[in-house]
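Extended Data, record RNA-directed DNA polymerase
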Amino acid sequence: FQGLGTFPNKHHITLNENVSPTVAPIRRVPQILHNRLKLKLEELEKSNSIRKVEHPTEWLQPLVIVEKPNGDLRLCLDPKQLNCAIKREHFLIPSMEEISAKLSGKKFFTVLDMKDGYWQVLIDDASANLLTFGTPYGRYQFLRLAFGVCSAPEVFQRKNYELFGDIEGVSLYFDDLIVTGETELEHDKNLKIVLERALKFNVKFNKTKIQFKQSSVKFMGQIFSQKGIETNKNYVKAIIEMPVPSCKNSLLRFLGMVKYLGKFIPKLSQITAPLRNLTRNDVPWYWSTEHEAAVTQLKQILTNSPVLTFFDPKKEIVIETDSSKDGLGACLIQEEHPVAFASRSLTKTEMKYAQIEKEALAILFAVQKFHLFIYGLNIKMYSDHKPLESIFKKNIQSISPRLQRIRLKLLNYNLHVTYKPGKQMYISDALSRAYLKNEKVLKSNQEIDYFVHSLTKTLSMSESRKEQFKKETKNDPTLQLIRNYIETSWPANKNDIPTDAKPFFKIKDQLYSIENLLFHDYKLIVPKKLQKEMITLIHEGHFGIEKCKSRARQIFYWPGMSHDIEMFIKSCKVCEKFARKNSYQTLMPYPITKRPWERVAVDIFTYAKISYLVMYDAFSNWLEIVQIKDKSAVTVMQEIKQIFARFGSPDVLVADNVPFNSEIFKKFAMEWNFKLAFRSPNFPRSNGLAEKAVAIAKSIIKKAKEEGKDMYSALLAYRNIPLKHINYSPSQILNSRRCKTKIPIAQELLSPELCKNMTKKVEYKQQLNTDYFNKRATDHAPLDNNSNVTVYNHVTNTWEPGKIVNTHQFPRSYVVKDSLGNTLRRNRHDLRMSQNEYQVKDHECESISQNNEKTLLNLPQTSESGPQLSSDLQNPPFQCVKESYVTTRSGRTINKPIKLDL
């Protein structure tokens, strides 16, 4: 009787073919349970019930941890997916007639209950891999047949039969074994053989459940004695002791139940006549002895043959259950005949359950009450609460704790829960309203409420914070309405619910109340008054919107929570100041040039304390690199003149602002017949050609210096390399010939040759570049006048407050006033919408307007700055903007250069 038993031979779980293994995610375990879980795992390892797994396994089952009232833990699996893949053995279960025949004429009976049930069946390594589960301490697998495996009842019955089935006077029914004898000597002899064989093969029995050498015993839900089979009064007690109807409604329910079974009751109309007369509207309610006698007679008829029948495990098993606001009712039915009835009142705690929890409790009550009949068999369970159908299909971990606890207790039963309208379930409906008031509640059911209430004990909050939540939940009218719906019932129509409570309607089956707190699944529902405070705590550390949403969704719930978090973080001034740069905007490329040296970009850079001038042709990609002694306008102009003397003047020279915006340079542009264009302020990507030229030039210079070689040799090599997608080199495109280098080359290849289809090739290359860039770019929403914004400061790399004055004439450009009152022009890339209201100083300064702008030329912008795409470049009305003056932080006035807007 002590220890854990072990049946001989290991069992192999067989799966259907072509089944895909499933790996359930390892569930998080509350920190408060970690130490106890570790001790429980060690205890099960020592008893050879589980073992740790290091090798990979294809299956991983979800683990469910149940905390008992004594603090001990029970580890259960939820193998729903595995059960769908298991091949059932369908071992023959003995019928009631077969067992009755074997027990006929016996006078002495002993009933033995197998201890720990399925855990006495060892499984092989392949099957153990199927029962692998994850914990915070690694993966483990069961070495014994775990509860919840759908094939376990048949396997257990077969193992029992193989071990004890050949013994005279012994009958088996799953985990119950009955030993009989016509004489005491015969009984003792048979019992001795059973015990000796159990000792030999290490099979254990439950000492507390033995019915030893009795003249009558309870077995398979019936009472067996030398007289034969008798009905167990516990299964008809719900009818016999049913309260007498106290009003017309209760009488109508009783008559509905009787009528439902009427085809088995002779002279039903004659017996029920006085009762039916009492239900008439013109007859006052008066309960007499005649009515009492009719009800008593009907109770006797209902609890005896031919209405009541004996249970037969080979017939289809149907159980109907129902829950009223005060009681539970259930009826076991086979071939439309009732087999057993059950009812009881709800405890004060159970009365506060949500209606879906009461209906699930009714199923648990029925299963526990009819356990001796239905254990190990397929059961068709009917309930008039339709949401239970989906609840029993869901993963256990995804439902509320109370429903989860009920489901765990039902894992040992093969249930198929189906919806059936209440008006068609007369018996269970009547029993749930005319329930037995003194029926005891099983002690094991107390674990349900302990398990649920333990949730509040594991909440990671102080007692003062918990009391604050309880107080504000109580003071929140919407949450109190929700709590009332949970404890009574929800309106059938969503439109009958107040507006503030409507968002809860679609999740009503996942809501529950514990100790005056409301939960959605495991998430605490936050009262309206505490929502902003909780968002502030979630946003501690100033993490981004998605991270804060993810954190909140794990622990809190209220309708619109994601939106509230998003708006809170968007209005956070700290986050706004240190936000990342805006994402790239889609390209707005320059128009395609038609010939070499039509548009040329120029820039200056410094490397290793040496300044360089670079020039880059948009059509041919020809690169010029010139070392300069200083960055003055005169020096730069002289170097550019030398380049122009070789290749001629371009139509347009795109440049940075300084020193190319000086008066001397403007004069140079007029004399040499080209137009100047300048990039947008603080937006170098608007002169993408120059940025590309600088990058190439720096690469050539760095590598040449590293090798100690001449950079001009590398520059010559670059000019002679064919361009991707064009297959001509910059030298061929610009000069219509290849340059001679150190590499041997045929004389014919040095001959002049015109490049063909260049315009199409350049267009194709530009389109490829644009498409590639736009994959990671997005267009920002336009901004309205007087909108609050933040402006990116390229010096401090932070965002500073500002306000939109108006939209600039050029695409994606805005006139902005910053917090100091300075009027600036900025690209949309450097602006962000702000939820905050900022105070902006007003300076008496010249505003930006089109009237004071000098018309120089109209050159479309490149990259993200926003071009004015135009195919006509002969007389473009491009304008250069002069910004109003600005001051430094100390107040010194800065004279702004005249700039060309791009």
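Summary. The first helix runs from residue 34 to 46.
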